[in-house]
Each structure stands twice: as C-alpha cells, then as structure tokens.
# Entry
Amino acid sequence: MKKWATAIAVTVMLTGCAQQTAEDLYVQQIQEIGDLEGAPVEEIKKLGNNVCALYDEGAETPDAIKVLTDNGLEAGDAGKVLALSINQYCPEHLKDSGF
# Structure
C-alpha cells in the first residue's frame, strides 16, 4: 500500500511540474530581477515583446540596453531582461544579440 501512495504522490508532483510553460518560467525569472521583482505578468510579457520589437527595428544590444537603463533598470538587470526576452519571444535574434 505504501508503494502505491508514493507512486501516486510522485505522479502528482510530476504532473504539476509539467504544467509550467516556457512562458511561465520566463515570467518567473523576470520577476526575480531586482527592480522587476513581483511585476505584473502582463507587463512582463509586454516588456518581452517590446525587446523583440527593438531588434526587429534593427537595434543592436547596446541600444536595447540603453533603452532599458533609460527606463530605470540597472545595466546588469537590463542584460538579463534582454537575454531572457529574446530567448522566449524572438530566438531568431539570439545570434544578432550576442547572447
């Protein structure tokens, strides 16, 4: 009986873990960055898409970092936001960005 209870508990745990999407993980990682800690989910998603729009318009990484730092992020946090956003929303820009 104890083996079945353990198997069921493990299955429930794994099922719960599998339900987290890549976007959920992205949001969680962004929410752990300094000034963005606890930021609203929709704002984080918008931020990620705005980062991609910068690259779509031809911006280079130093330009994108400047936009983020001009809006209040520390340079190191801006770099993390860029890397995470590009990886999630526009991986086609990974090569261009240097990440």
User: Anything to note?
Assistant: The chain has a mean pLDDT of 84. Residues 21-97 form one domain. The first helix runs from residue 2 to 18.
